[in-house]
Design brief:
It contains 16 helices and three strands. It is mostly helical. Strands 1-2-3 form a three-stranded antiparallel sheet, with no helix packed on it. Helix 2 packs across helix 3.
Length: 334
Amino acid sequence: MTLAQVTSNLLAQTTAWTSLHDDELKRRATLAARDKDAAALSDLTVAYLGHLGGSGVLTSPKTVEAYRLGIRQYVTHAQAHAVGILNPGRHAPQHYVSSLLAQGRKPAGVQLKVAAARCLYRALRWAGATEADPFKDVRIPKDHTTGLEKRPPYTEQEIGRVLEHASAHDRFLLLLTAHAGLRIAEALALTWADLDLERRRLSVTGKGRKSRTVPMSARLVEAAAQYRVLYGPGGEAHRHDENGQRRRTTPQVQAFRYRTIQNATHAMKGTFAQAGVPWRGFHAARKHAGTKLLSRTGDLATVAAFLGHSSVDTTRNSYAAVASDAASDQMLDW
């Protein structure tokens, strides 16, 4: 799905609620809260995000899905503990946090769940269903474990083993994350027009629709070229059907066949299993790129620009454990 289609879908979801008369908006929101209707409450919150959220209709699909999941979990907790959504009681929000921690969730994960719940109540206040702001003062313990310790990057050996077992499709995707440092959502959003193999450059649209240009390693260029022969516009995989018969093709815009992160994850997990490498997510491959570049350059600003971080502080917090002895060569010919 293209960025324009994603934005259009979120606009449609938002319009379905913002086109309601104020009284009807309040009625539906109140009814959804009373009945603990997780689907309706999620839709209301997504409409609020698209209308008044920080990124509006440019809110990323990943954020939308994370908030939907968080709201479903909060509603499930409210049902199990007889908590009213509109008036949860003074101690209920902190009890929700404590319950999540008791389940073994890490503080960072609890922060995400609380962010979803807070957004739900902003949406309910926007709809006029309540004045409550129950998660305003909840306390979540600080997690002093660094990101690299919690989810370490893949090693060079692990990446190499997986590449030996990967198809052309998965090899290209893995190198986009492990060499070019792309977020998985950024990689799946690539179009063929974003790839410049001659100049070894990628045009990437990241969080908040911020654009950056990323250099391609020699191995990534090779993998991209092989992938394009098969799956690019007019590629072998598109010119013939499973019986070898020539078929009509339509212009390919998106580079990847995967339409969701879940589909890509399912396929890549299988490749990692074949290679005997524990799966730690696509982000561990992105961390591989970040740690390698930082160890070569010792320059946090360079790494921040490469990864598309909004602030060098984000890079510093994420890669504080990486040795800062710089190498003079900043090219990514891995």
